[in-house]
Structures are given as structure tokens and as C-alpha cells.
Amino acid sequence: MFVTSPAEEHATKPELYEALAGQFAALIAGERDGIANAANLSALLFTSLPHLNWAGFYFLRANSELVLGPFQGKPACVRIPVGRGVCGTAVERAATVLVDDVHAFPGHIACDAASRSELVVPLLREGRVVGVLDLDSPIPSRFDGEDREGIERLAAIYAEGSDPV
Hints:
Number of helices: 4
Largest sheet: 6 strands, antiparallel
Structural class: alpha+beta
Helix content: 25-40%
Order of helices and strands: HHEEEHEEEH
CATH superfamily: GAF domain
Strand content: 25-35%
Radius of gyration: 15 Å
């Protein structure tokens, strides 16, 4: 049985993300399937982080579009062109994109009208972007630099510990 610890048990965000990194590393130990590991990371984040309405993956196909992968939350957009929306912008820049107010982000793609802020971290394998880990919140400015660092670490654990999807 796998047990997670609620966010309230951790005094700081860095402590929370340290615990999540340990939990996720243990969860995928001995398992390299990229779909299974993405599904488990989506569930771990969605159930452990407060104020999320979506947590999941998009995977890059033919270097031109992202295709929906495992996630937790409401149904989502299936395909996103590189360079469009927050996810496509993260791929184009090969860098994390943190958006305090998605309504102010040019070209934002609204899969869930309740989303107000977003954090998208590219998945890197051998220096190439292969997808993104996407978190949405109904709370404006929900994500900060500590969230960015924590999610980047979890994305790296996923990319290093999982076979390509």
C-alpha cells in the first residue's frame, strides 16, 4: 500500500516538495513505464497539492503538437500546437512558464473556464523537450517560485525514471 502525506503536515513548501519527491521516487522505483508513471505522478500531485483543478501531462508528437496524456481533473484539450497557449509556449521556449492570471496570457487555451493560474514545466530527455507537466488552479497567483522548483524536480524525476512515451 502506498501512503501519501497531506500538504498540511508540512510546515513549508520546500518540505512538502521534498516529501513528494521522495514519495514519487519510491512510487516509481522499479517501474519505467512512462504512461504508468505519468498517471501516478498526476494523481500524487492532484491529491497532495491544495487548490488544483487539473494536474497532468501532454506529450510532444512529431515536434509540432502536444497530445494529452494521463491527468487528474476535468476533461481537457486533446491537442495543442507548439507555440500556442501556456503548454505550447513552454515547449517552444524549452522553459518553465508560470502564469499568475491565465486571462492575461496572450493565446491562452481555456480547457476549464475555472482555471485562473497555471504552471507548466517541460519534460526534458537528452536536452530535448518530450512533453510537459501542467498544473492549473482556480486561484489567481496560486503558484510561486517554490512551486516552480518543486515541480521542476518532480518532472526531472519522472523524465529520468521513465521510458519515453
